[in-house]
Amino acid sequence: MKLILAIIQPSKLEAVKEALARVEVFRLTVMDVQGFGRQKGHSEMYRGRELAVNLLRKIQLQIAVNEDFVEPTINAIIEAGRTGPDGRIGDGKIFVLPLEDCIRIRTGERGPEAI
Predict the structure, then answer these.
(1) Which of 1, 8, 63, 76: disulfide with 92, CB 3.0–4.6 Å?
(2) Which element (helix H / strand E) includes 47?
(3) How far is CA 88 from the centre of its chain?
(4) Which residues, including other chains, have CB under 8 Å from residue 10's CB and lie 6 or more apart?
(5) Cα dihedral 101/104/108/109 (nearest 10)
(6) Which pLDDT score is estimated for 42?
């Protein structure tokens, strides 16, 4: 089992959800997050003053999958989350972490069956 964390542009959320549905991944958690990487934020004008905005709005997806679904999930996120054919800085990142256990609260099932 793996936990996939994906940081994507907010504008790509619907496309990523559709791409995940095509590879039969329907269970995910979506969170609004803020952060920056190579984009390093941007500047905005507020009441005549220039302000540096260091944190940019992003969407974080948390997806627990069994081993067979790891690569299809990653490929779906890349395909739908990339801006243009070559992508752009700020398109996001995907992290894949080992998932030691999963427990379904309702039934008490554990492991891959609980996902």
Answers:
(1) 8
(2) none
(3) 16
(4) 32, 57, 58, 59
(5) -60
(6) 61
pLDDT band at 13 (very low <50, low <70, confident <90, very high): very high
Encoded amino acid at 68, one letter: D
17-31 mean pLDDT: 97
Residue count of the chain: 115
Instruction: Report the Cα 24 to chain-centroid distance in Å.
Output: 16
Question: pTM value?
Answer: 0.85
Rounded CA gap, 82 and 72, in Å?
15
pLDDT in tens, 40-97: 666 666 677 766 667 789 999 999 999 999 999 999 999 999 998 889 988 999 999 9
Tokens standing for residue 22: 């095509």
CA distance 70 to 59: 20
Cα dihedral sign, 44-47-48-50: negative
Find the mean pLDDT for residues 26-50: 79
